[in-house]
Amino acid sequence: MKKLAIFDFDGTLCDTVMDVVICFDEALSSYGFPTLTRQEYIECLGGNIDEAVSLILKDQNSKENIELIKNAYEKLYSVSNKQNSVPFPDALEVLNKLQEKGILLAINSNRKTDSIKYFADKYFKSIDFVLIEGHNPDYPSKPNPFGVNRIIKKADVSLDETVYIGDSSTDINTAKNSGIDCILVSWGYGNEKDYENEYVLKVVEDMNQLLDIV
Predict the structure, then answer these.
(1) Minimal CB count within 10 Å: which of 7, 42, 120, 156?
(2) Are 195 and 127 contained in the same domain?
(3) What are phi and psi for residue 87, nearest 5 degrees?
(4) Which domain holds residue 34?
């Protein structure tokens, strides 16, 4: 049995992409850049904000344009009501049950830490996360194992006692670079190629399956 479960956030615990799409659409349109489809945006996400904006801008991704759209997006997102961002079905219930079983819980994401904490306080108040490690521009972001290593150190567990739960290739590579097992969820923003990755211990289709596997 695992002692520590580290969760990705977007696409794993919460469905957040629609509010991201809305704000990127407005940011890009306001400066005359083409917008993308929902699926195209999803394919650009996974890295930190600078990496995401660079991919979204495609061949117009100069340093100046990245900074322009990033700042516009972040201003729009910060004041949006984020009404479309909600936990996936049974997320809170499963986290509560894992916590009751004595499993330590943490979050490691390329979303900024303050943003993750906003949603954690809103939707997961009963969960005592060991650590919430979001993107910090001063430190390496996923798939670098920096955040995972900080969580494991604070939890004081071994690599064998830890599992990473995510939805995409970024999460697979984060787990692999950290030397820990990886479980992938199918309700997020991943694809068939991710689900067939040989490093993945298990692909789950229902949140409640995590109770048996972890």
Answers:
(1) 156
(2) yes
(3) -65, 150
(4) 17-79
User: What pLDDT is attached to residue 1?
Assistant: 82
131 Ramachandran zone, left/alpha/beta (phi>0; psi -120 to 50): beta
**How are beta strands 14-15 and 4-7 bridged, if at all?**
unpaired
Into how many domains does the chain fold? 2
State which of 27, 58, 79 marks the end of a domain.
79
Report, as an integer, the average pLDDT of 34-52.
95
Phi, psi of 171 (to 5 degrees): -70, -40
d(CA 151, CA 6): 8
**Residue range 85-143, pLDDT digits in tens:** 999 999 999 999 999 999 999 999 999 999 999 999 999 999 999 999 999 999 999 99
Do residues 130 and 71 share a domain?
A: no
What does the alpha-carbon distance between residue 199 and residue 155 come to, in Å, rounded to a whole number? 24
Residues 66 and 93 in one domain: no
Among candidate residues 150, 110, 118, the one with its CA nearest the CA of residue 131: 150
Phi, psi of 105 (to 5 degrees): -125, 145
Task: Identify the CA nearest to 7 among candidates 139, 99, 76, 80.
Answer: 99
Q: What pLDDT digit, counting tens, does each position of 8-41 carry?
A: 999 999 999 999 999 999 999 999 999 999 999 9
List the Cα angle 158/162/167 in 5-degree steps.
155
